[in-house]
Amino acid sequence: MGNIRNWWSNLHYTALQKRSLLIVAGLVLATSSFFILRTSTPSEAITPPPLSMDMADVDLVDMTIDIQGAVLRPGVYQLPMGSRVVDAIKAAGGVTKVGDPSDLNQARKISDGEQIYVYARSGTATTATQKAKPKPKSAAFVLINRASAKEFEALDGIGPVLASRIVAFRKANGPFSAIEDLLKVPGIGAGTLSKFKTKLRV
């Protein structure tokens, strides 16, 4: 302690300079202590901000679909986004005893506002089917949303390959809305369609 006092007395500074030096040294010491204490204190866990309602509810958004035909409870339903045709059929209570969902691709994802129609097996009909899809007067007409590949083959200009394409396209994309939708099937052009268009019904 005496050595420090002697060293301090022998410094060639004025009293004011020595006082300033003490102040600077004190500030340095205080600042160093502050940073040492801060780094030694465990940091608090950072809690991420809560998800907003829009982000949290993304998977809960519903879409509205209409399912008709040979199902137990036809009508309009709300399903979660990303639902598939099979989910819509389940929501409507499943198919009836005469229902035939084989024309539908049940694994296909459905979109908001879509209508799904489950047809009855050939030779049978439900009340909903009779109201929404009346049978044509002539048995010669081919119903493009119900016909099998064999029935399409009976049309002029349609062979086994093209008939299979029509059925596969219908299963992948849902029922045709109009006869002209057949032009979307690879291999069917306007000329081909004109050969049998009058024999088709939706």
TrEMBL record:
Keywords from UniProt, A to Z, are: Membrane, Transmembrane, Transmembrane helix
Coiled-coil stretches noted in the UniProt entry, renumbered to this chain:
none
SMART domains the record matches: HhH1
Show where the Helix-hairpin-helix DNA-binding motif class domain sits: 150-169, 180-199
Transmembrane is among the record's keywords: yes
Q: Which GO terms describe its molecular function?
A: DNA binding
Q: Which GO terms describe its biological process?
A: DNA repair; protein secretion by the type II secretion system
- Provide the Gene Ontology terms for cellular component: type II protein secretion system complex
What the entry lists under InterPro entries is as follows:
Competence_ComEA_HhH (IPR004509), Endo/Exo/Phosphatase_dom_1 (IPR051675), Hlx-hairpin-Hlx_DNA-bd_motif (IPR003583), RuvA_2-like (IPR010994), Soluble_ligand-bd (IPR019554)
Transmembrane residues, as ranges? 20-37
Q: Which PANTHER family match?
A: ENDONUCLEASE/EXONUCLEASE/PHOSPHATASE FAMILY DOMAIN-CONTAINING PROTEIN 1 (PTHR21180), ENDONUCLEASE_EXONUCLEASE_PHOSPHATASE FAMILY DOMAIN-CONTAINING PROTEIN 1 (PTHR21180:SF32)
Q: What is this protein called?
A: Unannotated protein
Q: What is the lineage of its organism?
A: unclassified sequences, metagenomes, ecological metagenomes
